Amino acid sequence: MYQKLACVFIGALFILSLSFPVNAKVRGEAVVTTIKSEVLSETRELLIHLPNNYSRYKNTTYPVLYLLDGQRNFAHTVGTLDLLNQSGMAQEMIVIGITNTERTRDFTPTYDEGYNQWGISGGADNFLDFLEKELKPFVKANYRTNNYTIISGHSLSALFTLYALQERPELFQAYFAFSPSLWWHEEVIFPEAKAFFASDNELNKYLYINMGNEDGNMLSAYERYTELLNCSKRKGFTFDSELDTSESHNTTALAGMSLALQKQLNSLRPTGTIIQEGIPAVEQHYKDLSAKYAFEAKPEYKAVNHAGYAALNKQDFDSAIAIFKKNVTRFPNKSDAYDSLADGYEANGDLARALEMREKALAMSYEENVENGAYKTRLVNLRKKLIKAQTNRPLVPY
């Protein structure tokens, strides 16, 4: 009896003595730099944000999001992306915000004299040259990229985004177009757009396009364009369109960015059926993605993690633990990887190893700079479970 009481007392002290450090800091890293463009005959400012784990995963490469109207859209995009990253709902990526000098010039495909009061137009092809020949090589030379790129624009820059898709589809794998100004110059983009989407050539691209509570030629041109999308039979091409009348023209980029990032990731993820088939099927899926989109696709953390829990739900503990270990090996600085491995050990009755992984998950969460309330709770609960298991052991006679 005294032995049991001692175990309970010591265990209770051990739980109460848990202390958690305070180590708050801003996630990720922001950099402001410039690039001298011979194509544009000017110097352009770039707002660059690196993922939270960029400096910790030295061998990891990342997708790049090229963000037009960078000064306006950088802060909300980086914040939205980071929030989604923490829940595994978007890819970690490098964000390149391109600030404007002559917005109308850069984002319009044709010269329209009637628009001169807002700026000289018709420089879209030149701006495409800048992206292709100068900016993308600059980013590739200075940052760890995996060759998957996204371009995002709003209003006139969304017009440019769609123009880039049909004029030089090889430049990017994904396109975000928020409230595109498709009305430009009497809808000049449409003849080529119609032919582009009517083609039977393969088009391994993803597009997200939206519109808010806009009317007139903004809405009619959007409806005309989405009709082309719905009628397109191009193999490999996927898209999502959203008409959200609760948003205005000025907020569609803010509201749409979250959906675009989530849906873009979903366009790459393996289906539930593939995950249920196990790791070989998941790995084959990413090999197929690499060939389809011409980038270095590696199994995403969440996809492997889901495969582990699929095995765990089948009570195939050995397979589940092996899968969770695979994620720990690939993501040694990710707290959730250790927490999931702890789930595997705990389900298999190996509470000692589960405790080791729970402690590791909590310790790693401070370095990773992520919310860790759930890790603390699970650790405390596991310690209680261990104490209960110890007190229920038969007494050894002296």
Automatic annotation (TrEMBL):
Keywords from the named record: Hydrolase, Signal
A Pfam short name: Esterase
Domain of life of the organism encoding this protein: Bacteria
InterPro entries: AB_hydrolase_fold, Esterase-like, Siderophore_Hydrolase_D, TPR-like_helical_dom_sf
Gene3D superfamilies cross-referenced by the UniProt entry: alpha/beta hydrolase
SUPFAM superfamilies named among the record's database cross-references: alpha/beta-Hydrolases, TPR-like
Signal sequence segment: 1-24
GO molecular function, one term: hydrolase activity, acting on ester bonds
Family as reported in the entry's similarity comment: Belongs to the esterase D family.
PANTHER family on file: SIDEROPHORE TRIACETYLFUSARININE C ESTERASE, SIDEROPHORE-DEGRADING ESTERASE (EUROFUNG)
Protein name: Esterase
